[in-house]
Amino acid sequence: MKYVQQAMDTNWVAPLGPNVDEFENELSRFTGSPNVAALSSGTAAIHLALIILRVKREDEVICSSFTFSASANPIVYEGAVPVFIDSETQTWNFSPPHLEEAIKDRMKKGKKPKAIIAVHLYGQCAKINEMTEIANRFEIPVIEDAAESLGSTYQKKHSGTFGKIGCLSFNGNKIITTSGGGALMSEEKWIVEKAKFLSTQARENAPHYEHKEIGFNYRMSNILAGIGRGQMEVLPLRIQQRRKIYQNYVEQLSAISEISFLPEMEGTFSNRWLTCILIDKNSKVSREDIRVELEKENVDARPFWKPMHLQPVFKDYPYYGSGVSDDLFERGLCLPSGSNLEESDQAMICELIRKMF
Ligand SMILES: *Cc1c(COP(=O)(O)O)cnc(C)c1O
């Protein structure tokens, strides 16, 4: 409220101003990325990342299939072709062997992919070393979709700072929020300068309105950046809270052998954005049984993201996989994980689940 009030008091009610600058500085300090542009959404960040990497009509872009549609939609905005790849079982994120298989097969078919969109779901970092090695070997730039993994690290380095471009989201459901918002990060200053330019309608430096490129209205409002500044002050606490929620679920459901969790892969630290459970293949109780049972008590639990290669809108695009993400979707459930989840509510949820087994 203090930062929003400051914006009002100083009349910085616009998609620029001191809160935007300061929010960017704070994100930069927190993630270690030297350059950050605050934008209107995570989707806008991914869209601009593709444009900055010169993804054009008919170009191909590799993308994790197991994700939210906003990872892939911007590929289609540009008239490019998403090529989806499956997950692996250790992180649930993209499978390095399928990444390599897809690159080689697309090249054999005559087109080298222009970019890779690597997603870190539910706070778990994907296999960063393999990603970097494959991307470097084929010289394909990586866009990290870190919308769900702000604060998650691999070997103490923040998600979103490994690829050429990193994208964050501050939508209402994320670990911190500006109601709606996002950010684009890069080691390379020109990339972030370009994102700021394109997100403010691509106005050339001239006294009149001069345009050489197609621009977008994608910059973050100074009011919303004020919310972001306040949120940055509680981000470490939010991560702590989410990790505690995860730990409580693990402890309270540990007696049920049919339920498993995603352990942190060695070297990674997860913000535990959502606590996700997998139900054993042979379990008599399915994830849908649990979801419906919880719903009866007004508890909102959701199936995992439905993979993009199974989505009607994306089903005709190329896909490389072996059924891992299909299986995750069949058996996975996201449990209530909001930072404000009361311990008593969490105990009630666990009791409902225990009763079913
Ligand atoms: C939320 C989300 C996005 C999109 O971010 P918005 O700010 O909502 O546009 C992209 N990718 C993933 C994986 C997300 O969870």
What is the strand and helix layout of this fold?
Blueprint: H1 2-9, H2 18-31, E1 35-39, H3 42-52, E2 60-64, H4 73-77, E3 81-85, H5 96-108, E4 115-119, H6 128-138, E5 142-145, E6 153-154, E7 157-158, E8 165-169, E9 182-186, H7 189-199, H8 222-253, E10 259-261, E11 268-269, E12 275-279, H9 287-296, E13 302-303, E14 319-320, H10 324-331, E15 332-335, H11 343-356
The structure holds pyridoxal-5'-phosphate (PLP).
Task: Describe the protein in words.
The protein has helices at 2-9, 18-31, 42-52, 73-77, 96-108, 128-138, 189-199, 222-253, 287-296, 324-331, 343-356, and strands spanning 35-39, 60-64, 81-85, 115-119, 142-145, 153-154, 157-158, 165-169, 182-186, 259-261, 268-269, 275-279, 302-303, 319-320, 332-335. It folds into 2 domains: 2-232, 3-Layer(aba) Sandwich (Aspartate Aminotransferase, domain 2); 235-356, Aspartate Aminotransferase, domain 1. The strands form 3 sheets. An 8-stranded mixed sheet has the order 1-9-8-5-4-2-3-14, sandwiched between helices. The protein has a 4-stranded antiparallel sheet with strand order 10-12-15-13. With 357 residues, it is an alpha/beta fold. It contains 11 helices and 15 strands. Helix content is 38%, strand content 16%. The structure holds pyridoxal-5'-phosphate (PLP).
